[in-house]
Design brief:
By secondary structure, this protein is α+β, with helices and mostly antiparallel strands. It has 2 domains: 1-139 and 257-303 and 318-462, no CATH class; 151-219 and 232-247, no CATH class. It is 62% helix and 12% strand. A 6-stranded antiparallel sheet has the order 1-2-3-4-5-6, with no helix packed on it. Strand 1 (151-153) and strand 2 (157-164) form a beta hairpin. 23% of the residues are buried.
């Protein structure tokens, strides 16, 4: 048995490692495709991009492990079935559960390791990813000069081009405003054409201008305050070629303080999530009690003179609201109605704003509950996917990356859609957060149990010949019934 178990483990670990890195690569490409606009054109060093990819790869591990487990189990058992090795093991009296026992042990180890990774490592990498990704998004582009739009450089210069040739990078009708003196548009440079390029070290911007003019307004004499005495002095310079060098400030990534994201539920472990959830629930209950008390006092205002009375003393009085209202004058009636309407509107507004506040607080609490359950549900998904992939591979008996990959993708898409749907409903408080996070596992777990039972009993549920023969039998049965019906009708005639 030891030799057999070593053979099965060797057959399983190879596809597991291979499929894990394939899935990681696909998910990482999806991340790059999603954030490509935030990364391109920012002048980022390759070390920053490599750091971001490293942290993001760590964040994708809990999602890649279930899919890799499913695909590896399908490939391993499919290869054993296709090569008749699984049939030989069963012929020797070895049951399928006994064959899968070393793989089940490996899956349990993977699930436990995934849980500890999600609880201890993932919060740290989430913090680093959120901080770095936010810093990258806040990073200003090197220079994106567009046609007909003013582009600001270092809050000092504004550049506008009328036309830009994408092939030669030649720009026409270039206008540059110099705001270095903070006195408005007093210094303007205009050129018919030119080139604007960033140096290799990305620290300077060089503008080479052709056939243009420079205009600059001079400061008026202090004595010429009256409009009729002002002369508006200015200078004009004509040039055939001029080179302007702009210093690019703020080059390099400005990293954001990590304390900005430490209150996020994604960067907390189980203990921190439990403490934060308990604190948030206390605040929620306190706000509810405060709201109820304020509403009670607004609807039923207390008489200050009665607060000193004994609370055990019963006071019975009978008041008729209609009789009191009818006894008032027309002016008092109008005043009371206006006061009542104003109080009703203010109370309605207070109830609406408090309802929105409590709903927002409830959603914030749900985020912590979702992250708490996610650390368990993703780990448990590895276990569920193994008991789907292993028996399914034993039934279909097809190895390689063809059919197993298609089936794995279909199951993973199903799992992902159910998970996203359940999480969305949980975030919107349409049902309990725990139920939303465990919905996909509880739906797929019975399927895994059913497939395991069918594989143990050598079911032909996935054999195409079985369905072809069943269809032929059905057609034969239909022909026989048709012939009998014809015979009955003929005999009646």
């Amino acid at each position: 048995m030891k030799t057999l178990h070593r053979f099965i483990l060797k057959s399983y670990l190879g596809p597991l490692v291979m499929t894990f890195f394939i899935v990681m690569f696909i998910l990482l490409m999806q991340f790059l495709w999603k954030y490509i606009d935030d990364l391109v054109g920012k002048g980022l060093e390759w070390t920053v991009i490599a750091e971001l990819l490293l942290y993001m790869s760590s964040n994708l591990i809990p999602m890649a492990l279930p899919l890799a487990t499913l695909l590896a189990a399908l490939m391993t058992m499919g290869n054993l079935g296709e090569n008749n090795e699984l049939l030989a093991m069963k012929s020797a009296g070895i049951s399928l559960p006994r064959i899968l026992s070393p793989l089940i042990l490996i899956t349990i180890v993977i699930s436990i390791s995934a849980f500890f990774f999600s609880n201890n490592v993932l919060p740290y990498t989430n913090l680093k990813t959120l901080t770095l990704l936010y810093s990258v998004k806040q990073q200003k582009p090197e220079l994106a000069i567009k046609e007909g739009v003013f582009t600001t450089i270092n809050d000092t210069y504004s550049i506008k081009v009328g036309e830009k040739n994408p092939k030669t990078n030649l720009m026409k009708r270039i206008m540059i405003y110099d705001h270095s003196k903070n006195e408005g548009n007093i210094n303007v440079t205009y050129a018919d054409s030119g080139y604007i390029k960033v140096t290799n070290d990305e620290k300077r911007l060089i503008a080479t201008l052709y056939s243009g003019n420079s205009y600059e307004e001079k400061t008026e004499n202090s004595g010429a305050r009256r409009m009729e005495l002002r002369k508006f002095p200015s200078t004009k310079q004509k040039f055939q070629e001029q080179v302007i060098i702009f210093e690019l400030q703020g080059n390099g990534l400005q990293r954001t303080d990590e304390d900005l994201f430490k209150s996020s539920a994604q960067v907390m472990n189980l203990h921190q999530l439990s403490v934060a959830e308990d604190s948030l629930k206390k605040q929620y209950r306190f706000r509810e009690v405060s709201f109820q008390k304020n509403i009670r006092n607004a609807v039923l205002p207390k008489n200050q003179s009665q607060e000193t009375l004994d609370t055990l003393r019963k006071i019975t009085c009978f008041l008729s609201g209609d009789s009191i209202y009818e006894s008032l004058s027309i002016r008092d009636k109008k005043t009371n109605v206006e006061i009542a309407i104003s109080n009703a509107r203010s109370t309605k507004s207070y109830i609406s704003s408090t309802s929105d506040e409590l709903f927002s607080k409830g959603k914030y609490i749900a985020k912590h509950v979702i992250e708490w359950n996610r650390k368990f549900s993703l780990s448990f998904a590895c276990f569920v996917f193994f008991f789907i992939g292993a028996p399914l591979g034993a039934i279909i008996r097809k190895g390689g990356l063809g059919l197993p990959a298609v089936i794995s993708v279909l199951f993973f898409v199903l799992y992902y859609v159910i998970t996203i749907t359940g999480e969305k409903f949980a975030r919107e408080l349409m049902w309990q957060p725990a139920a939303g996070m465990w919905l996909s596992s509880f739906i797929l777990l019975p399927l895994g149990i059913f497939l395991s039972y069918k594989a143990t009993t050598d079911s032909v549920i996935m054999n195409s010949d079985f369905y072809i023969e069943a269809f032929k039998k059905y057609m034969t049965f239909q022909k026989r019934i048709h012939v009998k019906i014809k015979g009955i009708n003929f005999s009646k005639k």
